[in-house]
Task: inverse folding
């Protein structure tokens, strides 16, 4: 089993390319979702963020893609505060895959063209191949794809922007076991290719299978090392029982 | 009684048809009799008041500025009406009023600039009224539709933003769909005119004894004007509203938050 890692472990030997520095997020007129969370994302590794439902995992990811901005704290990409970076440029460097596949209307080709309107069929085929789909999928209607195929297409769409980091928000939550393992393998491959992968899950078996590093969030904050160990151990015991 | 003068007796005569409608409501137990009576009476009072006021404004000896003042008041009322019909749309009063103003400025500039009609109270008020009336409905429709589309498809919009699209590009398919929905009925009614129904202005002119072909040319000018007005108003609402739903750094606001 993966050794539990607390917030102190973020300052590992591998330098982070995406850094969350004491970020907090409060919904306007609503509750505090994140409270001083720090986390570093190095290239070439799968960084898993886990924790109970409502711990703020998805919100943290949205901060990384700048779909939300932190109330306090800073998110940095390659050392630059995201507030000073053009969000459109940032999002092509820090891609995002959502929990539920989100195909756009039209063919797979049309979907990929949203990510890069200038890409050729050849380039699209290469990226489809990376996610385990062949070139014949280009002419398929995106809405007709199975859940697993659609999620792979969404990953291909994100890869077409040639990101350095991919944020994956429970990307296998709606998939069957076979597709789940396939997407996990794909994430591992992407990390091997040098992409920094952030993977959110509450499936502790999955943490064990894919994580190079794991962080636990509890109530919107970094869990302490003791809490992290307890959460991962308790989770495992519950699943084994 | 000539063709242009209905008179009080004629008005009462036409009321017989309302009585028929009420009788039908009674017989079919629709429970609409009171509503029909109220609507008919209210329309009579409103229109008579408007008629007396218009008589002063449209008097050939009256200053044309009274007509322009009338148009300004119509624009304001249109803004309030749009807001009351589409409360869930953020900033709809301002956008609705702005779009009505744009409609009046653009359309009347064309119509008077090309000398299609003379600049007189009797042309300014009814033309502006027709444009505002038709555009108002389209504005409500497009406002509600855009908010609905962007709320229902927020996951798609955010997926597009997450790929690096600007808010303009990310919202375009959904805004385009909303604009089409608002414009298609106007285009359809323009296509069907003359075949399926005779439009109001033309009917009025024919009843007033104007030559049918002259009435048609007036009606055509008005229809083109209305089509242009509806297109202008929905575009202003569409662009303005979409802008409000996104932040300057290309993030989708929640619709609830955007209303504050």
Result:
């Amino acid at each position: 089993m993966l050794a539990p890692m607390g917030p102190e472990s973020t300052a590992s030997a591998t330098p982070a390319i995406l850094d969350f520095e004491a970020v907090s997020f409060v919904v306007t007129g609503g509750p505090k979702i994140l409270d001083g969370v720090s986390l570093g994302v190095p290239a070439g590794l799968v960084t898993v963020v886990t924790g109970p439902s409502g711990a703020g995992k998805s919100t943290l990811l949205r901060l990384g893609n700048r779909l939300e901005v932190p109330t306090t704290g800073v998110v940095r990409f390659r050392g630059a505060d995201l507030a000073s970076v053009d969000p459109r440029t940032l999002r092509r460097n820090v891609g995002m895959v959502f929990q539920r596949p989100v195909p756009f209307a039209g063919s797979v080709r049309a979907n990929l063209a949203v990510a890069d309107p200038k890409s050729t069929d050849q380039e699209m085929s290469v990226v489809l191949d990376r996610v385990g789909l062949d070139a014949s999928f280009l002419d398929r209607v995106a809405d007709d794809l199975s859940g697993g195929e659609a999620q792979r297409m969404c990953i291909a769409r994100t890869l077409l922007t040639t990101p350095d980091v991919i944020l994956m928000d429970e990307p296998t939550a709606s998939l069957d076991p076979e597709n789940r393992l396939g997407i996990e393998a794909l994430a591992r491959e992407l990390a091997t290719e040098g992409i920094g992968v952030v993977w959110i899950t509450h499936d502790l078996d999955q943490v064990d299978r894919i994580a190079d590093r794991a962080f636990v969030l509890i109530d919107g904050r970094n869990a302490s090392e003791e809490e992290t160990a307890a959460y991962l151990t308790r989770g495992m015991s519950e699943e084994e029982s | 009684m000539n063709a242009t003068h209905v008179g009080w007796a004629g008005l009462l005569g036409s009321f017989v048809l309302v009585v028929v409608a009420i009788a039908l409501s009674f017989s079919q137990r629709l429970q609409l009799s009171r509503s029909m009576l109220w609507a008919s009476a209210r329309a009579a009072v409103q229109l008579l008041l408007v008629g007396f006021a218009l008589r002063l404004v449209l008097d050939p000896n009256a200053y044309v500025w009274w007509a322009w003042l009338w148009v300004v008041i119509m624009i304001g009322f249109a803004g309030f009406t749009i807001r009351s019909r589409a409360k869930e749309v953020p900033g709809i009063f301002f956008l609705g009023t702005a779009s009505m103003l744009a409609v009046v400025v653009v359309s009347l500039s064309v119509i008077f600039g090309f000398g299609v009609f003379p600049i007189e109270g009797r042309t300014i008020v009814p033309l502006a009224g027709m444009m505002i009336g038709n555009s108002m409905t389209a504005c409500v429709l497009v406002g509600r539709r855009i908010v609905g589309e962007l709320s229902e498809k927020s996951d798609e919009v955010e997926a597009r933003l997450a790929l690096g699209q600007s808010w303009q590009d990310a919202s375009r398919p959904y805004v385009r769909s909303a604009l089409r929905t608002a414009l298609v009925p106007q285009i359809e009614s323009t296509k069907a005119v003359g075949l399926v129904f005779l439009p109001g202005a033309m009917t009025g002119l024919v009843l007033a004894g104007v030559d049918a072909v002259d009435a048609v040319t007036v009606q055509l000018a008005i229809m083109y004007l209305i089509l242009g007005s509806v297109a202008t108003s929905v575009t202003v609402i569409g662009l303005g509203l979409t802008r409000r739903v996104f932040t300057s750094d290309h993030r989708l606001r929640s619709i609830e938050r955007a209303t504050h």
Notes: The interface with chain A takes residues 155-156, 158-166, 173, 249-252, 257 of chain B (CB under 8 Å). Residues 212-245 of chain B form the longest helix (34 residues). Chain B has two domains: 1-58, 62-258. The two ends of chain B are 57 Å apart (CA to CA).
